[in-house]
Structure formats: C-alpha cells, structure tokens
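From the pipeline queue, job 12 of 40. The input is one protein chain; the requested action is below.

Action: predict structure.
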Amino acid sequence: MTDTPTGGPRRTSGVTKAAILEAARERFAADGYERATIRAIARDAGIDPSMVMRYYGNKEGLFAAASEIDLGLPELGGLPGKHIGAALVAHFLDRWEADEVLTALLRVGVTNAAGAERVRTIFAEQLVPVAAGVCPEPADAPRRAALVSSQILGMAMARYVLRFPPAVAMSREEVIAWLAPTLQRYLTAERP
C-alpha cells in the first residue's frame, strides 16, 4: 500500500486489480454473468466502478480476466497407459472441489456466449496438448479432447451445478471407477 496525498492508505494498482478479480469471481459465481454488475463488483472490491472500467474495459473483459484458469493438467505421458483415465478424472475432481471459479465458469458457459467461448478456449488450449501427448494419432487430439471434455463437463454439471443427488452421493472412488475407463478409451484406443 502507498499513501494518498491526505495521508490515508491507498491501494497500489496490483492490489486493486487483485481485489477486483476476487470480487468478480465471487460475484460471477453467486449471480452468474448476466446478473453480475460492474457496480456490485466495484462495491465488493471497495473501489469506484470507474476503476473496474479503467483496468478491464467492460464486463466481458473483466469476465475474461476473472476466468483465466490454469487447469494444471498432469503430465500423462509418463504414466502407465492403463492409468491415464483414472489420473485425469482424479485431477478434475480435485480441481472442481477446490476451485469454485471452475463451477462459476461452467454456469456462465451454459447461459452466455462469452462464457461458452471462455470454456472452449480453456479446454482447447490446455486439454488438446495433453490428448496429443497420449493418443495414437496426434491429429485426432482435438476430437479426443472434445470427447473427454464431454464426460468431465457433464459430470461437473451433474455433480456441482445441478447437484443431481445420485451424482453428488457418489464417492470420489466411484466417480473415478465409472468415468476412468471411458476417458481411457477416448484418449488411448485406436480410432473406430
């Protein structure tokens, strides 16, 4: 923090941006993209709305920055082939359960074009290279990554957004046991 000319504390631009992003993530998670407002986000961050606009331009720019997510995907190439699906399901369960930003992004992705594009971009940029590293034909990686995404995002929607009781009630081990063989096949089987 630095001081204002009157001697009171003033946030640095880095601290202000961090406060805006934190408030935006919480507001988008609670209200969704459509209902979240720049004014509410600024109020939550304890700043003037003009500062949000100064740093992020508009709501879409703020959403893109707030939803910048590194999935932290594991290196699958070094694993024994039969464990790839299980490792990937376990990784995504850990991420969904530890990071509400992913759940918020999924909610926004199904109701808003900008959110859907953000989800597509994240998964294309991060999951396609992982698929290319383990599938028999690297040219098939985008298709295989899309199939994996359908399972991962489908379970996330059922378990964390819609909260279907059977999906919520399943233990971590059960989810892995059910999904891992499918992901394994999508990533490593020969093309049908």
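Job complete. The first strand starts at residue 2 and ends at 3.
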